[in-house]
Structure formats: C-alpha cells, structure tokens
Specification:
The structure holds 2 protein chains of 2 kinds. Chain A contains 11 helices and 7 strands. By secondary structure, chain A is mainly alpha-helical. The longest helix of chain A is centred in the N-terminal third of the chain and has 20 residues, at 27-46. In chain A, 43% of the residues lie in helices and 7% in strands. Chain A is globular, with a radius of gyration of 18 Å. Chain B is 42% helix and 0% strand. The chains are: A mainly alpha, B mainly alpha.
Chain lengths: 279, 205
C-alpha cells in the first residue's frame, strides 16, 4: 500500500470545508453548498488525495498493520474473504458468507470478527458506541473499513451470492427494505423507492432501482461534510433507523448486514469510488 | 369484482399470500430472528417499536400496493381509530401549527428525556407556505391548500382526519399516522389543520 501523507495539505482544505459545512438555515445556502460539494467532487476526481477521508485511509492502514489488542497481533492475518491478508478487491465482494463464523458478514462485521478473534478485543466493547459524534473523527473500525474499502477503489461491486446463506441474506435484506415499523410507520422504501424525491432539499437515492443504486452505493464509506467525519455504511444505516424512530441497531448485526447485501445486489456492477464525499 | 373473488379464493386455497407479494426466500420467522439479534435486550417501549400492527404487516407484505379488498379493510380499520376534539372545533392556532410543521423533533433515541414537544415535520415532505423554500417532495405540495378549496368545512374535517390517520383515505400511504400512532396530540393536529386551512395562514397567502 502506498503511504499516504496528506496531513500537510489539510489546513488548505479547512476554509473550503467550513464553507461547505455552513449552517443550512437558509435554503439558498443549502442549494449553494450542494453546488459547492458537486464542484468539490469534481476536484476529487482530479485529485483524490484532497478528500479528508484519506486521513482515515492512512490511519486505517496503521491500525491494520500495527500489533494491537490483548494478543498484540496485527490484522494482517485477517481473512476478508479472499484469503488471510488479501486486501485488494476484498471489499468489492462483500458482504459474503464466512464459514469460520457461519454467517454472512459485511466489511465492518468482518473487521469486528478479526479484532475479536485475532487480536483478542472484547466484541461487546467494540459494538458499544461504535460511531463518532458530529465533529469527531471516525472510530478505529471506521478508519480500518475506509482503508480496506479504498483497496477496492475502481473495481465493480460484485457480491458473489453463491452460498445459500448469501442468497438468504439478500432475500432478508429485500424484505427488511420494505418492512414498515415504528411510530412513524417508516420503511427504507418510504424514502428510497421512487425517483427524484427529496427530504427538505436533500435528494434521496432510489435504492431499489439499480441504475440509481449503482451511482451511490459505491461511494461509502464517505466523508460527510455536515458532520466532518467519515461515515461508514453501517453508520449510515444506523442513522436511518434513528430517523425512523427505532432503537439503536447493533453494528454488524443481521439486519444492517442483510440491508447492505440488498444494496450491494441493487448496485451490482457499479463502480466503487470509496471513500466518497457527502453533504 | 370477479377478479377479487378469484384472488380471495386463491388466498383461501393456498393458505398463504400470492408469491409475487412476498420475498421469495425468507420466512417471517427469519425476519423476526434477524430483528431480535440486531436489537438485543430492548426495554419494552423500544421493543414494541420493532413489532408491526396488522396494517404495517399488510403494507409490508404487499409493498404498499395491496389488492383492493385488503386496501378497503385497512381503510375501514384506520378510519375507526380516528378521535376527534371533544368540543368539535377542528382548527387551532396556525402560528403554533407553523412551528410544528417545521419541527422534526421527537422520539428519536437522542430525544430522551424529551426537551420539547414532538413535531409534525411536514416540511420534510410537503411544500406549504411559499416563503419556505426548503421543503421535501415525498408528499404532494400543499401550497394554498385551503384557498384552493375555498376553506370549506368539509375540507377542514378531511385535513384533520388525513393528519390523524392518512391511511383512512389511502391504504399504505407513506405518510405517518400521526394521531393514531400517538406522535401528535389532538391539540397539535388542530394547530396543523389551522396552518393548512386558515385564511390567515401563510400557506394560503
């Protein structure tokens, strides 16, 4: 992996990001910041190293390679599906079935598994308060996920869906996508099953339509300007459940993994451009 | 009509819902097990949020597009749970309604203990007053809703009922059953009715 040394450039980014993160009190500002983010996305295409999320790719790489945890070993022996330590292209085929765990796991569930089994971390601690508050950097699992996802950048989303449990996870994810629950009667489909809709001024992707899913699913993990940190897919789904007035869903558990499988299937063939940049 | 009878007969004969309306490879038990594993050890108030009532269950099963006999049963049931103000007055204070229409606060897991009243969050999905340009489009525009309907009594009542329980009008509507689900009080719904239907409200200016 090429070493990333972009810390020196970050001060140059700060004013632009502050501008992007300006309080969206007025609609015009929101529209303007959407435009500014679109310009910024274009810049990122020309210079991917200007995405602040690359700091977490860097940090994630260090976390991956450094002996840590009660057993003081690195994650370099972690099997993400393509063999121990194989990083390139691993994320593109997740979620997948892992026979050692006898379940389907997405990237973050698998990282937790490796941190527990290889490094000896306590699983319960890893999945308790796993996401950062607004303004705080993403936690270790998020940084590692960002690093691993980056190793599939440019590849196509290609879930295998060969094992029976992978097929079951897809069917489960689809059922959950349309499942209405909670005091607002919401399902994922309430907001994500039609074209061209918005919440306030925020555009909503039509995630059960492959042509739209392919454009957006591969951008996660992404640097989220409004909360100034990297947000992973698990965190994104957790935040949707917050908005749906459901309790806090556990990181790497069956529901978010199955939904991630459904999204991966909908987005199959879409390009991975992680870490992306979001409002 | 004949089609409905045929569909009903198939339902009875097969003892299950038509294959097109359900996910092919996953059972209800599997969904329940996944939910249990993903939200372990919830206190009762939160656990109940993961459970579905009959309307949610049918709308999920039919992906919000139930056959007409099911839709009619849903609408009848939902209509029966609408409660009205004791004094019969359906319009409150549009200024309070405006604040409620703007507020998305309430019942998210970060909203406890409550710091203010639940909001209606109407602007997340609807256009209302024309000066508020930050509005969503999941629901129809309600710009000049009352004015277009000449502020009729019948529409005042219909708006009250639609906010209290939109599924009384449209089975599996996307909109939350704000009154029936206890998210808003009768007084709050009256204020929202005034915001939509009062001639003085900016929605109708």
């Amino acid at each position: 992996m090429k070493p990333v040394r972009i810390r020196d450039f970050v001060p140059l980014l700060a004013p632009l990001l502050l501008m992007l993160a300006a309080a969206p009190g007025l609609a015009q500002e929101t529209v303007d910041s959407e435009k500014a983010i679109e310009q910024y996305r274009q810049m990122l295409k020309e210079d991917p190293w200007s995405n602040p999320a690359m700091l977490d790719v860097d940090r994630g790489e260090q976390l991956w390679k450094t002996p840590r945890g009660p057993k003081s070993v690195s994650l370099e022996g972690c099997d993400l599906g393509k063999g121990p330590g194989v990083l390139e292209g691993a994320f593109a085929e997740l979620p997948r079935y892992f026979s050692d765990a006898d379940r389907v796991m997405d990237l973050e569930a698998r990282i937790v598994w490796c941190m527990e089994k290889l490094q000896g971390f306590d699983r319960k601690e890893l999945v308790t308060k796993p996401y950062p508050k607004g303004g705080s950097p993403t936690k270790d699992i998020g940084a590692i996920a960002t690093f691993v996802a980056y190793q599939s950048n440019g590849l196509k989303i290609s879930p295998k869906l060969e094992h029976a449990k992978e097929k079951e996870a897809l069917a489960l994810g689809e059922a959950l996508f349309f499942r209405r629950q909670g005091p607002m009667d919401f399902s994922c489909a309430t907001c994500h099953a039609d074209k061209g809709k918005r919440i306030r001024l925020q555009n909503l992707p039509y995630l059960s339509d492959p042509s739209e899913a392919r454009k957006v699913v591969g951008e996660w993990p992404a640097y989220r300007v409004s909360s100034s940190h990297v947000m992973t897919m698990q965190h994104r789904i957790y935040d949707c459940f917050w908005q749906m007035r459901l309790p806090e869903v556990e990181l790497g558990s069956d529901v978010p993994v199955a939904l991630t499988m459904y999204l991966a299937k909908m987005a199959e063939g879409g390009e991975i451009s992680a870490p992306g940049l979001k409002r | 009509m004949i089609r409905n009878i045929c569909a009903a007969a198939i339902l009875v004969l097969s003892g299950s819902i038509p294959a097109f309306a359900q996910s092919p490879e996953v059972s209800g038990d599997r969904v329940q097990a996944a939910i249990k594993a993903s939200w372990p050890n919830q206190p009762p108030e939160w656990q109940s949020r993961l459970e579905q009532d009959e309307t949610m269950r049918l709308c999920s099963q039919y992906r919000n597009d139930p056959p007409s006999d099911v839709a009619e049963a849903i609408m009848a049931r939902e209509r029966s749970n609408i409660k009205y103000p004791a004094d019969g007055k359906l319009m409150g204070d549009w200024k309070k309604g405006e604040k409620l229409a703007q507020s998305g606060y309430g019942r998210r897991f970060t909203d406890y203990p409550p710091r203010r009243e639940n909001g209606g969050n109407c602007y997340a999905c609807h256009q209302l007053a024309k000066e508020e340009v930050s509005f969503g489009t999941l629901g129809p525009s309600l710009l000049e809703y009352g004015k277009i309907r000449e502020f009729s009594e019948a529409d005042v009542k219909a708006v009250y009922e639609r906010i209290y329980n939109p599924q009384a009008f449209q089975a599996c509507a996307n909109m939350p059953r704000l009154g029936a689900n206890g998210h808003l009080t009768i007084e709050q719904i009256k204020d929202l009715v005034a915001y939509v239907m009062s001639p003085d409200s900016p929605v109708n200016k």
